[in-house]
Design brief:
This protein is of the alpha/beta class and about 220 residues long. It contains six helices and seven strands. It has helices at about 1-20, 55-60, 70-75, 90-110, 130-155, 185-225, and strands at about 20-30, 30-40, 40-45, 115-125, 155-160, 160-170, 175-185. A hairpin with a 2-residue loop joins strand 1 and strand 2. Helix 1 (about 1-20) packs across helix 6 (about 185-225). The longest helix has about 40 residues, at about 185-225. The protein is flat, with a radius of gyration of 26 Å. Mean pLDDT is about 80; it is low at about 70-85.
Length: about 220
């Protein structure tokens, strides 16, 4: 009996690892649409349905609370908390050097597990007022597409692709429209997590050491002064 139970568990794990999950998004001037896929199921996340008029009218408006007066002495003692980006430029460069090769190795092994379908993108640059700058940006986008797409096609499976770029010298704003979807096998996500776990941990440890070393240097300078 335990052999049949073990066989059933193994089959369930294989089916679970081969199940696809993913997201599909479409964006245009009208708004953004976002769907989440789990196997054959599809769940709409955006746009959120607006509440009905009757229910909206029943809701009472919230009372606006007036800000409390703060004494001058308390305002001087309170210092604003500084919350900035936790990583510096050196940490980001180290992350690119460490994680990108590991990610490329993982994608080469699990290429069939990641599928991008569709990939529709339309970019129309506005060139009114500065046509030379718009032309330079158009050339940069074309170069990025021509150099980046062959590399991306080697790493993942792409279906239904269409990328269009153009310049409208009579328009002021840039118009970006598109639709993109990506699905992953659960087993592929597990393999990617295992392949990136140790490089990511090494990068975090190095970033923490650099931050602690800089803090020690600043503390030493302050103590000497």
């Amino acid at each position: 009996m335990w052999r049949w139970v073990l066989l059933a568990i193994v089959l369930l794990l294989i089916l679970l690892c081969r199940t696809r999950v993913g997201v599909e998004a479409a964006f245009s001037a009208e708004g953004v649409r976002l769907d989440i896929r789990l196997g054959w199921l599809r769940l709409r996340i955006l746009p959120v349905k607006a509440p009905e008029e009757g229910k909206a009218s029943e809701k009472k408006p919230k009372k606006i609370e007036r800000p409390k007066k703060v004494k001058k002495e308390e305002a001087k003692t309170e210092k604003p908390s500084k919350k900035g980006f936790p990583f510096e430029a050196e940490d980001i460069k180290d992350a690119l050097r460490t994680l990108f090769p590991a990610l490329r190795r993982v994608l080469r092994r699990t290429r069939r597990g990641i599928r991008i379908s569709p990939l529709y993108l339309s970019v129309t640059l506005g060139g009114w007022g500065n046509p030379a700058k718009a032309a330079v940006r158009y050339g940069q986008i074309q170069t990025a597409v021509q150099l980046g797409m062959p590399v991306l096609e080697k790493l993942v499976e792409i279906r239904k692709i269409r990328i269009h770029t153009d310049v409208d010298f009579n328009a002021v704003e840039t118009v970006v429209e598109g639709e993109a979807g990506a699905t992953f096998r659960i087993g592929t996500l597990i393999a990617m997590g295992c392949g990136l776990l140790f490089p990511a941990l090494g990068w975090l440890l190095r970033a923490r050491r650099r931050r602690s070393g800089k803090n020690e240097q600043t503390a030493a300078v302050q103590s000497e002064s």
